[in-house]
# Entry
Amino acid sequence: MADEKKPKKGLNLNRMEMPRQDPKERIKNFNEVALGYTAEMAVAEAERCLQCKKPVCIDGCPAEVKIPEFIELITEGKFVEASRKIKETNALPAVCGRVCPQEEQCEVLCVLHKKGAPVAIGRLERFVADYEAEVGAVEVPELPPRTGKKVAVVGSGPAGLTVAADLALMGHEVVVFEALHKAGGVLVYGIPEFRLPKAIVQREVDYIEKLGARVVCDVVVGKTFTVDDLLNEEGFDAVFLGVGAGLPWFMDIPGENLNGVYSANEFLTRNNLMKAYLFPEYDTPIKVGRRVAVVGGGNVAMDAVRTALRLGAEEAHIVYRRSRAEMPAREEEIENAEAEGVIFNLLVNPVEVLGDESGWVKGMKCIRMELGEPDESGRRRPVPIEGSEFIMDVDMVVMAIGTGANPLVPSTTPDMEINRRGYIVADPETCKTTKRGVFAGGDIIRGAATVILAVGDGKKAARSIDHYLRTGEW
Amino acid sequence: MFKVVRKKEWHPTITELWVEAPWVAKKHRPGQFVIVRVDEKGERVPLTVVDIDKEEGTVCLVFQKVGKSTFHMGLLNPGDAFADVVGPLGRPTHIENFGTVVCVGGGVGVAPLYPIAKGMKEAGNRLISIIGARTKELLILEEKMNAISDELIITTDDGTYGMHGFVTDALKMVLDGDEKVDMVVAIGPVIMMKFVTKTCEPYQVPLVVSLNSIMVDATGMCGACRVSVGGVTRFVCVDGPEFDGYQVDYDELMKRQQMYLDEEKRALEKFREEHPEAFQGVC
# Structure
C-alpha cells in the first residue's frame, strides 16, 4: 500500500503532542485532563498528513469520516469548514475526537504509523469541533422535505444520537427516548468530566435537536412504553433500540454487599450524572474510602480509579487478574492513571471482601495469579497460584469487571430474538432484529464495546431504517 | 410536566401530593413505583405510587419527611413541579384470588400497601388489613383502607388509638384465629418486616414483603439497591420490589440503608438553615 503513496512533501515524524493538565494539579479537580491543540498546533499537525490518494485511514473509521479532506481544510485554516466536513458523516465529532480509540481505528492504518508517528487524527477532529462551537458557528445543513415517517429511537447514547441525526438529515421525524433525566447515555453517566466534559455532550445533543430530532427524557422503554406500544399505539413506523449494556456484573464473591462496595456504574453515575462530587450543593452523596481498590483493567476501571483519586482517596489501586499487556484499557488512559499515582496490582484477583461488625469494608482478600494457556479471547488465561492469598488493606472497593445486557426491553418484547447472553440478535450489516420494524445497535447487540462502534452501528441502522421506511421492504 | 395538582398534609412530617404524570398513570399497576427528582440538583428518590387518576393523568405520592429530599418535596405546592417523575418501575404485585389475604402496613408503609390491598380485594380475596403507627396522629389512609377491607385492625405503639401494640401483635392474633390465612403482604420499616416474618414463620403462611432500598437509576443499571434473597444477590429495582419474605436478609438490608447516614445528616442540617419554613411543626 505504501508504494502507492506519493508524498507531496518530506516526511515529518514529529507528531504534535497535546498539552495536558499537570498530574499533580489535575488530581485535585474534575476539569478535562487533555487541553486540546491551539490553532497553530493543529495546522502544524495537519500539515504532516500525506493526503494519500487511497486514504486507508478512512477504512478504520466506522463513522466514515472523510479524514484527508477535513485535515486538508485545517491546513488551509478553514477550521469551521473542516468541522462541517466531519459532520457530513459523524454528528458527534467533539465526543469521538476525545474518546475514540483512534490508535486502533484510523491512526493505526495511517501510513505514518509504520514510521511510528501517525497523524493525530483524533486530536484534529477534537480541535475543529471545539473551534466551531467556540466561534458560535454551529450551523444546521439544509434539511430535505419531510417524509412523514416517524421513528422512535430508544436510548440517547452514541448509537441513538447517531441514528437520530442521520434519520433527521434524511427527512424523517425522530423522537429519542431516554430513561434517565439527561440525554447522552454512557457519555453522561459513565465517562467522567475530566475525560469528556458534559457541556460537550450537551452541545452534541443540542445539535441533534437543531436537526429536528426531539429528545424526551424520563421514559423507560419496557416500562413507560413497550416497543409494541410505540409501534401500535404511539404511531411510530420504526423503532431503533440503542439501550446499551447497562447491567453491572459483580464477582459473586463473599462480602460484595458490604457498605463501601460499589459497581463502577453506580460509582460513576453518582459522580458524573448526579454530580456527587459537588455534594451537598447537589443532593446525591458518594462515599470515598481512604484506600480504594478498583477491580478490573478496562477504560471503566481507569475512569473509576481516577475519579476516586479526585474525590480525595489517599491511595487508589487497580486490581487486575492479568498483566499490563492484557489490559483492555486504552494505553493513553493507563498512562494517565500511572502519572496520577494510581497503584497497579497486576496478576491479582479478589476472593473475598472483608467487613467489620457494622457492615463496612475493612479489607479485601486476594490471590496472586499467573498466566497459563490462551483462552477464547486469545489472551493468556490467568490461573490462581495456590497458597498465595494475602489481604489488601482497603476500605472501599469498586467492581469494574464489565456489564451485561439489561433485560428491560428484551423481556417486554416477546417476539424479538435474544441470544443466550441476553443481547438482541441483529443483522450486523442492517441492524435489523427478528421483529419487523425494529432495529438495534451499539452495546445491546454485541456487549460492552466502544463509542465509535456504536456510532458505526447507528450509521448502518439509519440507512437501513430509511430503506425500510421508503420501500416497506423487510 | 410533573406539576403538583393537589396536596394534603397528613401530619407535619407526612405529605400527600397528586402529580401530573400521564404516562405513568396509564401504565401503573399495584406494587410499582416511580423515581422522582425535586429539582435539577435533586437526588433520584424511589416512591411507591399510592393511587392513580387515569382521566386526570395524575399519580398520588405519599412520603414521610426524613431527609433533605423529602423535606424539600414537602415544600412543593399545587402549581409547583417536580423536575422528573419516571415510571412505573419494578415488577407489579402478583395479584390473584388466593382466598384470604392479610395486608400489614406500618407507618408510612400503609401508603404503598394501599394499591396492593385494593388489587387483592378487587381480585376477589377476603381482605384483612392491619395498619399501625407509633401514635394516633401518624396513622394515615385509615378511611381508604377501611373502604376496601373486610376487616380493618388498627394498632398504635403507644395505645393512643386502636389496639395498643405492634402490627405483629395483631397479626399473631389473626393467625391464631379460626380463619385460614392464605397470604400475608407486609410493607413498612425493615425492622417491622423482619418481625412480621418471624411472626409468620411458625404458621408457614406465604409472605410477600416490599422493600425500599437506596436506588440511583432504578432501571437495573447501578446495583445500589442490591439485597440478598435466598443467598442470591437481587436488584430491588428490577427484580423486586416484592420478594418472598422468608428469603430476605433483613440485617444486611438494614446495614445497607445506613450507608449514607452521615451525608444525610449533613444535607438535612444545611437545608434546615436555608429553609426553616420546611420544618414547621416538626420537633
